[in-house]
Amino acid sequence: MRLKNKLAVITAAASGMGAAGCEVFAREGATVFAIDINKKNLDEVVARVGRAGGKAYGMVADLLDPDNCRKAIAEAAAQMGGIDILWNHAGIPGLRDVEDLDLDGYAKTMDLNIRTGLVMSGAAIAHMRKRGGGAIVFTASTAGLVGASVSPVYSAAKFGVVGMGKSLALRYAEEKIRVNVVCPGPIETPMFPDFFDPNASKEVALAAQAKVVAAIPLARMGQAIEVANAALWLASDEASFVTGAALPVDGGFTAR
Ligand SMILES: NC(=O)c1ccc[n+]([C@@H]2O[C@H](COP(=O)([O-])OP(=O)(O)OC[C@H]3O[C@@H](n4cnc5c(N)ncnc54)[C@H](O)[C@@H]3O)[C@@H](O)[C@H]2O)c1
Predict the structure, then answer these.
(1) What is the helix (H) or strand (E) element at residue 254, kind and residue range?
(2) 154 belongs to the catalytic site
(3) How many Å lie between the centroid of ligand 1 and the Cα of residue 89?
(4) Are 91 and 45 contacting, i.e. CB atoms less than 8 angstroms apart?
(5) Of 128, 158, 227, 254, which shows the fewest CB atoms inside 10 Å?
């Protein structure tokens, strides 16, 4: 088991890659503290982990609020008896428009993608220090490695996540807290269509999505579990000499 006896927190845990992460982290021996704003889906994920013989706690929280982030980390440490791993997966595509910029939308995109992970990490570090080290994984995107015309604001935020991950890796290396970033390409989850124009006709939307897939060397979209497996590896001791990395999980999209 690759995460035997590890205590792991996962955000945006009720769907997509976060939910796959809960299942695979628990299967590999971790106790999982799963956080999401969607109670119904979160309950289902926690129950699924339990049915598979794993151990998971669930907490409903809107992680846009920094107080909720700090409370969630305190609760995770109290329930599990500490924290070894934090996968900061929460994020949103946010705004498409840049010419008539909605500043509230801008703030929300930046805050959930950047501030939430920073506040969660800041609160978790003291708990990792007590256990002699730890592993933090952020979810950025290929849009954090190369430009993305569909959402420049999202791309700005995800480049920020990559920079933040690398900088935290340098700052906490001496304390044996590794920090890495996973950068998914297009992944088949409920979020994927949100990257495209909601006012476009179905045909135009499907054509836009097909164009994205056509740019992927492996000629398909990714699956949630493929990103969860990358996060699992980065969080595990198998990646003990890996810190400050931004790992594309993108079918070769950023290799061009
Ligand atoms: N799907 C993709 O193609 C793709 C590609 C690259 C990066 N990403 C990144 O992956 C992450 C999530 O993507 P996914 O595809 O797994 O999404 P998803 O839509 O399957 O799940 C997102 C989860 O986040 C939760 N959530 C939303 N706002 C929240 C909040 N304020 N507080 C707590 N929970 C909240 C939702 O309830 C949902 O369960 C994001 O950081 C996203 O930017 C996605």
Answers:
(1) none
(2) yes
(3) 7
(4) no
(5) 254
What the chain holds in terms of domains, given with CATH numbers, is: 7-255 (3.40.50.720)
Do the Cβ atoms of 27 and 2 come closer than 8 Å?
A: no
Tell me which long-range contacts 248-251 makes (C-beta under 8 A, separation of at least 24): 248/142, 248/145, 248/183, 248/185, 249/182, 249/183, 249/184, 249/185, 249/222, 250/142, 250/183, 250/184, 250/185, 250/186, 250/216, 250/222, 251/185, 251/216, 251/217, 251/218, 251/219, 251/220, 251/221, 251/222
Angle between helices 116-130 and 152-172 in degrees, nearest 10:
20
Ligand 1 pocket mutation pick from 39, 141, 191 by most atoms within 8 angstroms of CB: 191
Tens of pLDDT, residue by residue over 117-175, are: 999 999 999 999 999 999 999 999 999 999 998 889 999 999 999 999 999 999 999 99
Q: Does the model's pTM come out above 0.85?
A: yes
Does ligand 1 lie within 6 Å of residue 12's CB atom? yes
pLDDT tens digits for range 224-250: 999 999 999 999 999 999 999 999 999
Catalytic residue among 57, 106, 154, 172: 154
Structure tokens at 249: 């999980």
